[in-house]
Design goal:
The structure holds two protein chains of two kinds. By secondary structure, chain A is an alpha+beta fold. Helix content of chain A is about 50%, strand content about 20%. In chain A, the strands form four sheets. In chain A, strands 6, 7, 8, 9, 10, 11, 12 and 20 form an eight-stranded mixed beta sheet that branches. In chain A, strands 2-1-5-4-3 form a five-stranded antiparallel beta sheet. In chain A, strands 14-16-17-19-18 form a five-stranded mixed beta sheet. Classes of the chains: A alpha+beta, B alpha/beta. Chains A and B meet through helix 11, helix 12 and helix 13 of A and helix 1 and helix 5 of B.
């Protein structure tokens, strides 16, 4: 009701003035109106004074006071409520802090005045041991004194300090804290106490150190690996999952003539061209890296020539492995070496073998023909005894010739470095060739050669090797058959392989000797008596050749009945491809 | 009478070939190195040449090349008799124009003689492995 701010003094003033004024008016009125000498004047005076002043007092004093008191009470309630809210917020904050942070307070000299439970728990000191102490008792000694000098300088000048401190607990163990120290300033701006919040970060610090250590370890390993890579004699080129070159070692640079920077980021076929043995450029999709990634297997290539930076072509033997991590191909690693010298050496060796072969054969052919000339009677008739002797000498010579042939075959094959030449060959064409080559021998032994008509098929392999194997087996069929018999060849097309079958009705292989028939120089007992000439190397060579092109030899045989030989070969013998892949 | 030129550097092989060819009724000329071949060719044109490969002075391949390059001699049938048995060598000889190839140690001399007869009768068919 009172629009003005209630003032006790004003009200009191109004009251005094009002009372006097009222009294004056009453007295005047009473004097004027009523008998002044009446004995009721004082009573009337007091009566009217009270009647008029009472409401005045009420309206000007009591009521405002009342509403003021009500206001104050309201305010008090509000304040109380606010105080309660603050209290509970404060409580929550303290709870939060208690659980997560060390909270402490110190006086202006740095002596601890308050330590929360966490402080006690972590430092392992009791409350009594902490209160009154300086934080110095927690110094680990592992940090430079400058840190603490800076700390004190900062906070004593009234500024907040933030930093990481390593502390020592009562039991000697260490813990790290991320500390925020806030000075509480007095009215002059000087710190009168300090409040500190410390978050324990020991685990984080340990993890950081572990990571640093791990990084150092990795760096060391990396340096070691790089040194290793640089020192190996073979060229190494690694690519990413798109086939782009990522790493080139020093040997690779030397072999190819390119610097690593010139190759990194490019596809191998962009910078280094390759031609196959026919001189045709190998297309990108047939190049080593892309084939390895497309087939997800190890790839070996030996037959191509690669162009160096200076234009010179060199033969390289390359092996590329895809690198697979968690089932995904993330790149390839290729290792290669310059095989020029190897090839030259191999060529020299082959030339030598060829020459040696020739030199051994020449005298043997001489003896052969001279004996034949004599036996023909071109230098006069011979006695029966002379003819017999000459025939024996002839046979011995033949044996020698065969042995030389087979031994040369073994030597050539065992050189190991002879690359397999791939080509397509028709199966029937192969057999027909073999029949022609052996027609003379077949005729003289009176063994008929027959090929069972069947659908032709093409095999992707070294034609010479396959021919050699089959020729060996067919020759055996002829050699160990009786006159007027047949050697029958058939070709079967299976889903994944071709099976050549060579069947004769000759002397067969005794069961107890079957296991040894592929051994070097082994001749079955019945074979030795039937034909004295054989060297025992035929099947050994055939078997070795077969393993080189992925073919398998087997047979069924019964002594006195005949032998059936099987040659199984996949449609395509991929040289160097293997099941395993490089797994990381 | 048919004349056969034998080109061979080994004495005993020359002897064997000569004896057999003469018994067939052919006349035989002999050259024992790669250059003597052409001396003999100049003397008398043979009906057939038996040619070894490893020869002194000039090897059989080069002799073959020269023979086939000369219109006068290119039609004379040539049978190569050599103890080099590599397929590459056989192939090379045939590609250079030889009509046939025998690895001496692998064939009785009678086979050679029969093949000579075939060629001289104009019925020669290559039996060399392809």
């Amino acid at each position: 009701m009172p629009p003005k701010e209630f003032s006790v003094y004003r009200s009191f003033l109004y009251l005094i003035v009002g009372i006097f004024a009222t009294e004056f008016i009453i007295m005047m009125t009473l004097e004027y109106l009523v008998l002044p000498e009446s004995k009721y004047v004082h009573f009337l005076d007091s009566f009217f004074l009270v009647i008029i002043v009472s409401p005045l007092v009420y309206f000007f004093t009591i009521k405002p006071l009342q509403s003021k008191i009500a206001e104050l009470k309201k305010a008090e309630l509000a304040i109380q409520k606010y105080a309660d809210e603050i209290k509970s917020e404060h409580h929550a904050i303290v709870q939060a802090l208690e659980g997560s942070a060390i909270v402490s307070m110190t006086d202006e000299k740095g002596s601890i005045t308050y330590a929360n439970q966490k402080f006690i728990d972590i430092s392992k000191y009791t409350k009594d041991e902490l209160i009154g102490q300086n934080h110095r008792i927690l110094k680990s000694g592992h940090q430079p004194p400058e840190l603490f000098d800076d700390l004190w300088a900062t906070i004593s000048s009234g500024k907040i300090w933030r930093g990481e401190i390593k502390n020592r607990a009562k039991d000697g163990s260490y813990y790290w804290v991320d500390a925020t120290i806030v000075p509480v300033l007095d009215q002059g701006g000087k710190p009168k106490s300090y409040v500190a919040l410390r978050i324990v970060i020991t685990e984080r610090k340990d993890a950081e150190e572990k990571i640093r250590e791990y990084i150092r370890k990795i760096e060391r390993e990396k340096t070691k690996d790089e040194a290793l890579l640089e020192s190996i004699g073979e060229g190494m080129i690694a690519t990413d999952e798109t086939g782009r070159i990522t790493t080139v070692n020093r040997a690779a640079e030397q072999i190819l003539g390119w610097k690593a920077e010139e190759l990194i980021g490019k596809m191998s076929y962009e910078m280094i061209s390759a031609v196959d043995e026919n001189g045709n450029t190998v297309p990108p999709e047939k190049r080593e890296v892309l084939v390895a990634m497309a087939t997800n297997t190890m790839v070996t290539m030996e037959a191509a020539q690669y162009t160096r930076k200076d234009g010179r072509r060199i033969p390289l033997s390359i092996t590329v492995n895809p690198v697979i991590v968690d089932g995904k191909t993330i790149g390839t690693i290729g290792v290669f070496r310059d095989v020029t010298k190897e090839r030259e050496l191999e060529q020299t060796r082959q030339d030598l073998l060829s020459l040696a072969s020739h030199q051994l054969r020449t005298p043997l052919s001489g003896t052969k023909w001279l004996i034949e000339t004599l036996t023909k009677g071109l230098h006069g008739p011979l006695t029966k005894g002379q003819t017999e002797y000459l025939n024996e000498i002839y046979k011995i010579n033949e044996r020698m010739t065969l042995l030389v042939q087979d031994m040369m075959g073994v030597l050539r094959m065992e050189s190991g470095a002879s690359p397999i030449k791939k080509g397509s060959v028709s199966a029937t064409h192969l057999i027909k060739n073999i029949f022609e080559t052996l027609s003379g021998a077949a005729k003289s032994k009176q063994v008929a050669l027959r090929l069972i008509e069947s659908e032709d098929c093409t095999i992707n392999t070294d034609p010479l090797f396959l021919q050699n194997i089959l020729e060996n087996i067919v020759a055996n069929a002829i050699n160990y058959s009786n006159p007027d018999s047949e050697a029958v060849v058939s070709i079967a097309k299976e889903p994944h392989e071709v099976i050549f079958t060579v069947k004769d009705s000759g002397i067969g292989i005794p069961e107890d000797e079957q296991r040894q028939i592929f051994e070097r120089f082994y001749r079955a007992s019945n074979a030795k008596t039937f034909d004295t000439r054989g060297s025992g190397l035929g099947l050994y060579i055939a078997n070795m050749l077969a393993s080189k092109i992925g073919a398998k030899l087997s047979f069924d045989s019964e002594a006195g009945k005949g032998t059936t030989f099987y040659v199984r070969i996949p449609y395509s013998s991929e040289e160097g491809l293997q099941e395993e892949t490089a797994r990381v | 009478m048919n004349n056969v030129l034998v080109v061979e550097d080994e004495e005993f092989l020359v002897r064997a070939l000569k004896d057999n060819l003469l018994s067939e009724g052919y006349s035989v000329a002999v050259a024992m190195d790669g250059e003597a071949v052409f001396d003999e060719l100049a003397k008398k044109k043979p009906n057939l040449i038996l040619l070894d490969i490893l020869l002194p002075k000039k090897n059989g391949f080069d002799v073959l090349k020269d023979l086939k390059a000369n219109p006068e001699w290119q039609l004379i049938p040539v049978i190569v008799l050599s103890n080099l048995g590599e397929d590459t060598e056989i192939k090379r000889a045939l590609e250079l124009g030889a009509n046939d190839y025998f690895v001496k140690s692998q064939h009785p001399i009678q086979e050679v003689i029969e093949k000579v007869r075939e060629y001289l009768q104009g019925k020669g068919v290559t039996s060399a492995p392809r």
